[in-house]
Amino acid sequence: MSRLAAGVVLVTAHEPPLTEDGPRGEDVGMTATAFMSVSLDPPLVLVSLREGSRMDDLLAEQPVWAVSVLAEGQRQVAGRFSMKGRISDRLLFDDLPWSRGEVSGAPLLDGALATLECRTEFRTEAGDHTLVVGRVLSASVPVSDGRPLTYFKGGYRHLSA
């Protein structure tokens, strides 16, 4: 499967505080290459999450989430959010330009080729991953002329002109 080129996205969600009086919730992000359009009517997308990952656990509880389709200049973002074993995502968003989605409350990256806000329709186990199908609630194209960041043969790539 390393020979199948894929687009790179950042999946994000806002983890609410444990209690209403507690500190504010945390923004969580994860790089994904297993992301695709499923249906145009209704608009549905699918993301594959490693079973038991922080994002898998969060999206089992949090029904709304977001996706930023990364541009070729956002390679460092992809690398930052693909780190395994990190304890917290809190600092990962600190120096990135982003805005909070109006529907999901999740971070949407500035400079992304497209952004989506989704609500989970259903989840299903698939081997060591969970497939999450989400209904697109909002979509925008903040950058109309950029090129995508892709993943091929174990590394991030750029499309040639």
Automatic annotation (TrEMBL):
GO terms for biological process: pyrimidine nucleobase catabolic process. Keywords: Oxidoreductase. One of its GO terms (molecular function) is FMN binding. This is Reductase. Pfam families: Flavin_Reduct (PF01613). It comes from Streptomyces venezuelae. Residues 1-158 form the Flavin reductase like domain. It comes from the Bacteria. SMART domains: Flavin_Reduct (SM00903).
